[in-house]
Amino acid sequence: MPLTDMSLAQLRAFSPTVREPADFDDFWRETLAEARTAADLAGEKARATRTPADTPITELIVEDLTFPGFNAEPVKAWAIRPKGREGEKLPVVVEFNGYNGGRGIVGERALWALAGYAYVFMDTRGQGSGWGTGGDTSDPHGSNAAVSGWMTRGILDPKQHFYRRVFTDAARLIDEVRTWDFIDPTRIAVTGGSQGGGIAIAAAGLSPDVWALMPDVAFLCAWEHGTDVAVSDPYQELARYLAVHREHTETVWNTAAYFDGVNFAKRITVPALFSVALMDDVVPPSTTFAGFNALASADKAIEVYAYNGHEGGQTYQWLKQAEFLAARR
């Protein structure tokens, strides 16, 4: 597979023009306020719960988490932590999943807990049937006419877009994790690969006091540029939509700007470790670099996997992340 984008030198300097709505901050402030108010009004019906998971795993504490996300709607997650650490305040890693993956079967992801962290893996509403072992969270909202997938669901109105709900779920999960008595609320890191990396960037932008941001082969940055250069889905969902709905071009890009990782990155100042793969034919490397280069963080680094595709660094990158967090504990 050849390099799919610019040279590395060009990528390191790449800073595309990304639309930024004048009311970007107000839009998200109001969105999160509405979600928190909805949970307050719902009372006990929206209360988060953690119950012991049905699993043969005996050496970790594994819990099935349900928490109130967008509109106080129930969102599922796994919460896993090491045993024998009672009385300690554990650092936490919150992870978000890739496109059309779900939280899967309990215990599939345990490395962070085995490394001494509390670990939370969020289900993505409406997804979970494209690969992996399934998801458990519905998305009870409709959409305008849309291309198969999630990029164009609600694309004519930012208040109706799919990622407004998902990004709100992510921020509300961080709200919930902060309340747990066994975690250190000053050490909540966010991570994820592909779509999960894009959600992590949004979560860090919406929860500015997180400890660290660690997205891998991050999707959802520089949407308009990504659609121009990507050769495959999910960005091509937008191209197919606009090939039919020619009259909606400006509306589409104005809506997309509310969910563009570049606009969140401009507001992020926490330590950040990104990764990118130069042979990635799903998420063009220039889109990931657009998000990384826009970061306001003084403490930031990006690992480059020159000969990998969308799989990125995999466990090699996890080891880099573990070292990154250990140096900042």
Automatic annotation (TrEMBL):
Coiled coil: none annotated. Residues 1-326 form the Acetyl xylan esterase domain. InterPro entries: AB_hydrolase_fold, AXE1_dom, CE7. It holds the Pfam family AXE1. This is Acetylxylan esterase. It comes from Gryllotalpicola daejeonensis.
